[in-house]
Amino acid sequence: MTDAATDAKADFVIYGSPVSPFVRKVAAVCLEKAVPFDVEPVNVFDPPQWFRDISPMKRIPVLRDRSIAAEGTDGTIADSSAICAMIEKKHPDPALYPADPYAHGRALFIEEYADTALAPAGGLGIFRPIFFAASKGEEPDLAKARDTWANAMPPVFDYLESALDGGEWFAGDTLSIADIAVACVLMQVSLVAETPLDTWPALAKHFATMQSRPSIAKPYAGADAAIRKVLPERFDLT
Fold first, then answer.
1. What's the alpha-carbon Rg for the chain, to the nearest Å?
2. CA dihedral sign of residues 233, 203, 159, 174
3. Count of CA atoms in the C-beta half-sphere (13 A) of 23
4. Which member of 82, 182, 219, 221 lies 3.0 to 4.6 Å from 24 by CB, making a disulfide possible if both were Cys?
5. C-alpha distances in angstroms, 27 versus 121, 160, 235?
């Protein structure tokens, strides 16, 4: 992030909320590359017209590159995967997409799996039934969350465990977008519930490694602070 003391604006501004795992994924990529960025909050449930204009699917995040345009649709990219790929092209070092063709494709697939399998299970099945209810002053739907943890999450974890195949990283021999995507989405569940992964030792080790990285921990801390205002403690879903 930019230094508030300088009051300078970074080229990149991420529109969204740190509570979103996809916003945190983009932030993590910027942090890994030491690329300054600003975050501007957007209420995705009632977004202003200017945001509707730059987000065709009405989702967060959207990235603006102010070096291209400071307003309007020019210089904006919607969708976290497209944003991260754009950042990689503009700031290629350190690389977060493997050079090896197979590993590159593998990283893209694992990122997609995190976005379309892990995120719906953990987000729709656990995070929303707990946090959305609590934020409205209602009792969290723990029955749905526990059913999701018991039945929907294990097959997803099984695949991720097999994808690691006992290794340290999901694609190639170093950190990639795949690792960032999985960690950010899995940590969405950690915002509201305990996430014991004893049955999946490789995934548990990977998760612990990723949680200790500043690029993951710093955006997560911002989200955690917001969640704890509404939900003081995490739930045990076992």
1. 18
2. positive
3. 25
4. 219
5. 23, 23, 27
The Cα–Cα gap between 79 and 81 comes to 6
- pLDDT of 8: 74
In a 13 Å sphere around the CA of 85, the CA atoms on its Cβ side amount to: 12
Average pLDDT, rounded, for the chain: 95
Alpha helices in the chain (DSSP H): 21-32, 49-54, 80-90, 101-113, 119, 133-135, 142-147, 153-164, 177-190, 201-211, 214-230
How many CA atoms, within 13 angstroms, populate the side-chain half-sphere of residue 214? 6
144 neighbors 151 (Cβ within 8 angstroms): no
Residue matched to tokens 């915002």:
191
Stretch 39-63: mean pLDDT, rounded?
Answer: 93
Distance from C-alpha of 25 to C-alpha of 183, rounded to nearest angstrom: 9
Residue 162 CB partners (closer than 8 Å, separation 6+) = none
- Give the C-alpha distances (Å, rounded to integers) separating 93 from 34, 46, 76, 88, 105: 9, 37, 22, 8, 19
Query: What single string gives the DSSP state of each residue in 156-198?
Result: HHHHHHHHHTT-SSSSTTS--HHHHHHHHHHHHHHTTB----T
Q: Let me know: does 17 contact 42? Beta carbons within 8 Å.
A: yes
Omega into 155 within 30° of 0, i.e. cis? no
Q: What is the pLDDT of residue 7?
A: 55
Task: Give the integer Cα–Cα distance in Å for 213 and 94.
Answer: 15
